[in-house]
Amino acid sequence: MCLAVPAKILEIEGDTAVIEINGVRRSGNVSLIHNPEIGDYVLLHAGFAIQKWSEEDVREFNAITEEMQKLEQT
Amino acid sequence: MNQHQKKDEVILMSHGGGGTRTKSIINDIILKNLGNAILAKLDDAACITVPESELALTTDSYVVQPIFFPGGDIGKLAVCGTINDLAMQGAEPRYLCLGLILEEGLPVSDLEKIIQSMGRVLSATGVSIVTGDTKVVERGQNNGLLINTSGMGVRCPGVDVHVSNACPGDVIIITGSIGDHGIAVISCREGLKFESELVSDVAPLWDLTHRLLKVIPNVHCLRDPTRGGLAAALCDIARTSDAGIRINETSLPVKREVIGACRMLGLNPLNVANEGKAVVVCQQEDAEKALDALRSHPYGRDACVIGVVTPAPAGMVLLETEMGGERIVEIPSGEDLPRIC
Amino acid sequence: MKQFSSHIENIQRLSEKTGRAVKLMEVCGTHTMAAFRSGLRSLLPSNVLLLSGPGCPVCVTAGDYIDRAIVIAHEPNTLVASFGDMIRVPGTDSSLEEARAHGARVLVVYSPLDALNEAIRHPKTQVVFLGVGFETTAPAVAWTIRESKRQGVSNYSVLCAHKTIPPAMAALLRSGDVKIDGFMCPGHVSVIIGSRPYEFICRDYNIPCVVAGFETADMAVSIGILLQQILNHRAEVVIQYSRSVNESGNAEAQAIMNEVFEECDDRWRGLGMIPHSGLRIRKQFAQHDALTIFGNLNIPAPRERPGCICGAILKGTQLPADCPLFRTQCTPETPVGACMVSSEGTCAAYYKYAKYTEHHESASKKG
Fold first, then answer.
1. What is the arithmetic mean of pLDDT over B292-305?
2. Which residue among B40, B109, B327, C31 sits deepest, i.e. has the most Cβ atoms within 10 Å of its Cβ?
3. Cα(C210)–Cα(C225) distance, rounded to whole angstroms?
4. How far apart are CA B54 and CA B61, in angstroms?
């Protein structure tokens, strides 16, 4: 049961955060990670952040994922 | 005293009764927003004159939930979808028939918005609704409204597109990004909601198609990748043409929001519905001209080549992955459900 | 792309040096799917066999769990909320999808939070969330149970079928059925439990383990690490997925799992009873335990379908091609066993992605 995606915390209020993946925003629960902060990257599974990622982790992820040709929403 | 002086706020069973309430829907909403000389006659059947040509006929029913979604609504979908089915057959869409099944309790203002939305597409495209029907059913699970549209178009002379025409060596083009519509609709579903700037790509494609056909009348195949996504459209072409198709994952245009939503929900953009895109299969030597024609139109700006038709394996669609590996693309069985696994 | 091809070259070089067939098991269903989807399998040398293990929670959920969920879904004023994965899984006679067609209320959700919110929004409806998944998912579900108690959401409950991975791996090894040369351990389960729970595999069975990420490059690197360990006759737990995994895991997540759940013996579809491998809701949360709330339901006795070899496939001892029902009676449209229904299931993955190369794999497996 392993589908989890990296996401960025945009806002936090208590246990709930607004997280963003590639421009898609949802609420997520951050009570399972230690000291979540706005701007943190987290691993999101079933609506819960289960791990924090550093900037370097994000860079590594971006480097190894060659995404399909992306277009900006206009 | 006119008992209907106060405007009805919601659809009632009596709106389907054929009496004054039915007439108020027809006059105040339908004729007001969709009216034309033929429809205004309100005859039992519309009489139209057509030139001596091959006619294309199609029908489709629209049951999308929710009925309003980012970028469109069920009405816009119903008009564009049927226009596009005709366009994909190389036929200029002319006339539509409209069947409305309204649920008791549907706000009349919602119905009005939807009909107005249809009217805007019809004005822009020159297509007319010439006949229709309205029924009302008891309140149920359908968010208020189901639509059927049947359409008639006139085949362009010299154009003979069929799903079976793909030949080895042909080039496969997609007119723009995939997965926009399906993800936009999912974003408003109960239990799955999320926000983004993403909107449905729902659009009428005859103008775009016509521009293509003017420069390449001998296009082999046209298909709009609706239910089942690009995967389903390519599988149909491969099977019906008894040829192979090979597409390249890195060449597929996908918006970053669609990638994000698909990653989150465990969906594959290849399987997600589109309502304003077309798959074009044409000869290799026509590819540049095709791309130029498509890209000159707002709905084809991002057109690109995504693959080729191959002699083998016949009937199969292969995907060369971004890592240089290979896998088979299949039509998804049933609804593609969000997963966490 | 350049970097990736060097990983593949590395795998080729190392596998040649081994001079034999090497059997690696990726435990997690998401790894199975990712390997196929990326075309990684088509790039591996023929002597490196990637077996799929029992890490597909939908596949290993007992048939009577689905039957119970279906019966609950038909109860008045009741809504069953579930991850999409479960909707088409066959029970004894039916599935949740079919039950919905017959009037049962079934809602697909992305998160257990959506189910809890549904319960809060509709206090007169009993909302039952199907708690399926391993340690990646259990903490999230535990949180909703604790929260529903804290907020007094008396109409929210969970039908718990959560399972844990290390005991299943232990059972697999104890059975002696499968000769595995290396394990690719589930990346996201390990985010929660850390890498230490796999150390017994190295220590007691001398089999190397790598905790692998899910991108194609992650898996390619992980296979290389396993091959290198095999060549050097080493057996250690290596964390490849260091972006997300550390040795001790996620303490907050472990704490809430322990607060809400307790360990129990559990039956895995196709594998039988595995001790200490399940989670059940603790007594102090009984008012949110659907098993307690719906205790008196008439559930048909579970019945496996004749011919179905999902159990052997989950153990990695047989391939889908070895099953008489594969692609004949058992297809994604008409699944017999859960290995076909779940998009993570080995059979579903093979059906979708491996038609082309399957005959190569079953031929080399016999070698």
1. 97
2. C31
3. 7
4. 24
CA dihedral C281, C345, C33, A46 (to 10 degrees): -20
Nearest to C211 by CA among C8, C31, C5, C12: C31
Question: In A, which residues are within 8 Å of C217 by CB distance?
Answer: 64
3-class DSSP string for chain B = CCCCCCCCCECCHHHHCCCHHHHHHHHHHHHHHHCCHHHHCCCCCCCCCCCCCCEEEEEEEECCCCCEECCEEHHHHHHHHHHHHHHCCCEEEEEEEEEEEEECCCEHHHHHHHHHHHHHHHHHHCCEEEEEEEEEECCCCCCCEEEEEEEEEEECCCCCCCHHHCCCCCEEEECCCCCHHHHHHHCCCCCCCCECCCCCCCCCCHHHHHHHHHHCCCCCEEECCCCCHHHHHHHHHHHHHCCEEEEEHHHCCEEHHHHHHHHHHCCCHHHCCCCCCCEEEECHHHHHHHHHHHHCCHHHCCCEEEEEEECCCCCCEEEECCCCCEEEECCCCCCCCCCCC
CATH 3.30.1330.10 residue ranges of chain B are 13-155
Do B250 and B306 touch, CB atoms closer than 8 A?
A: no
**Which pLDDT tens digit goes with each residue over B80-131?**
999 999 999 999 999 999 999 999 999 999 999 999 999 999 999 999 999 9
Determine the pLDDT at residue C359: 39
Q: What is the CATH architecture of B163-329?
A: Alpha-Beta Complex (3.90)
Q: Which residues of C touch B191 (CB under 8 A)?
A: 81, 107-110, 114-115, 118
Encoding tokens for residue C227?
């091959």
Q: Is C160 in contact with C294 (CB distance < 8 Å)?
A: no
CB B315, CB B240: distance < 8 Å: no
Question: Which residues are within 8 A (CB) of C270 and not within 5 positions of it... i.e. 6 or more apart?
Answer: C54, C59, C60, C310, C311, C312, C313, C314, C315, C337, C339
Which residues of chain C are in CATH 3.40.50.11740 domains? 1-305
User: What architecture does CATH give domain B13-155?
Assistant: 2-Layer Sandwich (3.30)
pTM of this structure: 0.87
Phi and psi angles of residue B177, each rounded to the nearest 5 degrees, phi first: -65, 145
Interface contact A73, partner C, CB < 8 A = no
The second-level CATH assignment, the architecture, of C1-305 is: 3-Layer(aba) Sandwich (3.40)
Cβ(B100)–Cβ(B132) below 8 Å: yes
The CATH number of A5-64 is 2.30.30.140
A13 interface with B at CB cutoff 8 Å: no
Asked if C329 is an interface residue toward chain A (Cβ–Cβ < 8 A), one would say no
- ipTM value for the complex: 0.89
| Cα B312 from Cα A6, distance rounded (Å) | 39
- Which residues of chain B are in CATH 3.90.650.10 domains? 163-329
Considering only CB atoms, which chain B residues are within 8 Å of A72? 255-256
Shortest CB distance from A2 goes to which of C83, C187, C251?
Answer: C187
Q: What pLDDT is recorded for position B334?
A: 61
